Amino acid sequence: MGEKLKKSEGKIENCVVIGSGPSGSTAALYLARAKMNPLMIAGFKEGARGGQLTTTTIVENFPGFPQGIDGTELAENMIAQAENFGTRVINKDVVDLSIGDESFIVYVGKKRDEIHTKSVIVCSGAIANRLYVPGTHDEEFWQKGVSTCAICDGSLPMFRDKPVAIIGGGDSAMEEAIYMSRYSSEVYIINRSNRFRASSIMLERAKKNKKIKIFENLVLEEVKGNKTVERIILKKTINNTKEEMNVGGVFFAIGHTPSTKFLEGKIELLHNKCIKTTETITKTSVPGLFCAGDVVDAVYRQAIKAAGDGCAAAIDAIRYIESLD
Ligand code: NDP
After folding, report:
1. Average pLDDT value for residue range 2-19
2. CA 131, CA 139: separation in Å to the nearest integer?
3. Which of the residues 15, 93, 123, 149 is marked catalytic?
4. For residues 218 and 241, what is the distance between their CA atoms, to the nearest angstrom?
5. Could you tell me the distance, in angstroms and rounded to a whole number, from the CA of residue 172 to the centre of ligand 1?
6. Which of 85, 92, 97, 256 is 20 to 30 Å from the Cα of 226, by its Cα?
7. Which residues line ligand 1 (CB under 6 A)?
8. Residue nearest to atom 35 of ligand 1 (CA)
9. In 3-state terms, the chain is what percent helix, strand and coil (to 5)?
10. Which pTM does this prediction carry?
């Protein structure tokens, strides 16, 4: 799978899709079916192939899979579907982008191989922020009770009827806590200060939920357990005293970082580093440069929404490419 990359030898692509999560794969599928012969840069390290779906276990909220589907399998199925219609895939990271006159150069991998193209769809996604305290690392309790997505993982049996902790004080923390209150015996929201970023309506909703308890001025120090998470150690920021809580799960809701570093100073980004769109949901400040998925959307961040955005970006890109000819 994937194509060996050489220096561009005068070849100009119609469209390069950056990223291979639901938005990238759907964009590539639509481009390929429209005979645009797309090239997808699927990611390797920074933007892992398949995107955030590959960091979750069972996906139960993507329509079409009544029993749910493994996140990595879903992501790989989407890539395979795009490939079946002719998408070429390169398993490397995009490290830079040059914007020219009705043309772009996409720089790929450590050697900065150049790909020249008429248009680009940025689907580089976002990475959920994690805390790296003892017990949370990949080889420890990550995905064994520690997660960044309650809506993806929260209904798994390991969290059923047990108390869980949600780290954060924004709307995501409130939403995830309310969601987890359906499955867990109690939900503890752990905020590092006594100020909440959450909107008052979301905060009130969480406060009214009998299963949710909100703790202020507490930071996570350590996650402990046996095969899965059993308890957490917290520190009170006002007096440095430690406390322990028995929980079966820990969810980080401490924001996401859009993967837009390679675009800084080149196109308009919002204060939260998401791409700023104009005119349609996929057009950027640069003609021919489109975007879709979590790289543009800090609010919904769902695979099904990203797939829909990818479809829209491909339609916009196809119209743009045809307007050049
Ligand atoms: P936010 O940036 O709004 O909140 C992040 C939270 O995480 C803050 O409480 C922050 O604390 C905390 N935090 C950040 N870093 C750390 C850390 N290292 N340790 C402990 N806590 C930390 O992100 P959200 O994901 O909550 O929301 C993003 C956007 O999505 C917002 O615009 C939000 O309104 C929107 N949204 C809307 C929803 C809805 O309306 N239903 C649902 C979900 C999201 P501190 O304040 O101290 O920095």
Report:
1. 74
2. 14
3. 149
4. 10
5. 6
6. 256
7. 131, 167-173, 175, 191-193, 197, 253-255, 298-299
8. 299
9. 25, 30, 45
10. 0.77
